[in-house]
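User: Predict the complex.
Assistant: Input components as received:
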Amino acid sequence: MTGRIFEKAVLILLAVVIIFPVLYALSASFFSPVDFTDSHAHLLPSSPDFSNYSMALSNRYYPRFIANSLITSLLLAALRTVISVLAAFAFTHLRFRGSRTVMIILLTTMFIPPDALLYPNYSTIASLGLLDTYAAIILPSVFSASSLLLLTGAFSSSDRDVYMASKIDGAGDFQYIVRILVPMAGSFVIAVFLQTFITGFSSYLWPLLVTSRMSMRTVQVGISMLGFAEAGEYGAQFAAIIMITLPFLILLGVLRKRIVDILSSGGMET
Amino acid sequence: MLTLSDMRTENGKAYVLLMPSLILAVMFSFYPLVKSVAGSFLTISQQGEVRGFAGLMNYISLFSDPAFPASIRHTLLFILMFLPLNTALTLLAAILTRRKTRWGGIAEYIFFMPMAVSLSSLSLIFREMFRGRVSVINQILDTDIAWLDSPGTALLVLAFLGVFLDFGIDYILLLSSFRRIDRNILEAAALDGAGNLRTLISIELPEIRTMLSVTVFLAAKDALLISAPVMILTQGGPFRSTETIMYYYYLEAFRSGNRGAESTITTLITIIAVIIMAMIASRRKNDWKNI
C-alpha cells in the first residue's frame, strides 16, 4: 500500500514539473510589468492584467507573423501530403524499373540531418532569388522520407484487385487515388498532414535564416522581435506565446487517445 | 498479365509521380551534402569561388581554432547531462502511466503537453523562469543562483530545456510500447504471484528495451545537433561556455562566412549523425522489412 502511495506521489511530482513551464507562461501572461521586476519573483499575478492580450493582438506585427506561419505551414503540409501520396501510390501500385533503387535513394535522406545542411541550402535558396519568400521557408522540408514511409506502409495493405477493377471501369489513377485510396488510408493521410503542419508551424531556425524583412517573419521567429521585452512588457510576450500554444494544446487533448491507440496497436511508428 | 507496353507506360507514369520527391531530395539533401563534403577538401573564398585543392587544411585549421574543440566539449557535456536525465524522466513517466487508470488520462495529457509548445516559446519561457537571481525557480527551490550567468548552471538549464523539447515524443514511443505488450503474459505473471515491480523488471522492461534504445539514440541525435535553444537562451554565453558544435557552426557559417569551417563541420556532423541513425534503423528493422 505504501508502495502505491509512493508511486502516486512520484507521478504527481513529475506531472507538476512537466506542466510547470506552461502554467507559468499562462500565469505570466496576466502579470503586470511590476510583477516581473519586483524584489521577489511572482508565481501568480498580483492582480490579473488582461491588457497583455490586447497589447499582443494590437501589435502591428503579431497578427502578420501568425498569418505567415499559418500560410507557410498549411502550404507545406498540403504539398508534402500530395507528393507523398503520389510517390507512395507509385511504389505500392505501379511496377516500374528501378523501384527499389529509387526507394532506397529517397529513404537515405532520413540519415542526413537537415540541420547540418543549413548553409548550403541557404545558398541554394539565395541563388534562386527566393530569400524572404514563402517558398524559401517551405521548399527544403516539403519532401520527407518518414512521411513517404508511413504512407507507403498504409497503401501497401490496399487491395490491388480494387485498383484493377477501378481501372477496368475506366477510372483514371487520379480518380482512384482521390476516391478510393486516400479515403481508405484516411487516418494516415491526416496524420501526415497534421504532423507536417505542426512541425512547420513550430520550426524556428530555418525561417530565421531565410527571412530578414519583418513582414516575412514567422511567429516562432518573430515572437522575440515584437519589442515587448525591450519595452519591459514581458507580460505581452507571454500572452503572445499562450495564444499560439493554446490551439495546439487543445488539438493534442482531442487527439491524444487516438494517437496512443494507433501507436499501441502497432499500426505505425514515427 | 502485364504486356510490354503496359510496363513501359507504368515506368513513365511512376517516374512522373516520383519526380517531385526525387527533385527535392536531391536538391536539399544530396546536393548540399556532396557540395559540403567536396568543399571541405577545397579552398573556397567567402564569395564561393573555388581557389584550389586544400587537402586536409580545412580540418586542421578547424581543430586549431580553440573554440571548435571547446564546442565539442560543451556538446559532450550537454549530452552527458541531458541524455541520462531525459531517459530517466521519460521512462519514469511511461512506467507510472503504463496501465490505464481512471485519472491516468490526465497524467498522460500532461506528459503530452511539452509537444504542443514550440521550441522558441519554450526557450523564451525558460529564459524568464531562470532569469537573474530573482527568478521563479530560485523562489521555488529556495536557492540564490544566477542560473544563466555561470557556465556550469547555464549548460544544465539548457539540458533541462532539451528534456522538455524531447519529452513528449519519447514518452509517447515508450508508453505505446508498454501498451503493446501482450496482456496474456502480464496476466500469467500476475497469476504466478509476481508483484508489480517484479513484472516490470523481468517482463515489461525487457519487452520495451528496443524502443528504449531507439529513444535514447533519437535523443542523442537531437542533442548532437542542438543550436536553436542556445541561440535564444544563452547566445553561447556566459563566456562562450554554452557554445555547442552547431552553434559554433552557425556563427562560422552565417556570421563569419568561414566556408572551410562550415563545410568541414557539415561533413563531420553528418558522419556522426549517419552512424547514430544507422543504429536506430538496425533496431527498427521490422519497420524496414516491408519496403
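Chain A has a mean pLDDT of 90.
Let me know if you want any component modeled separately.
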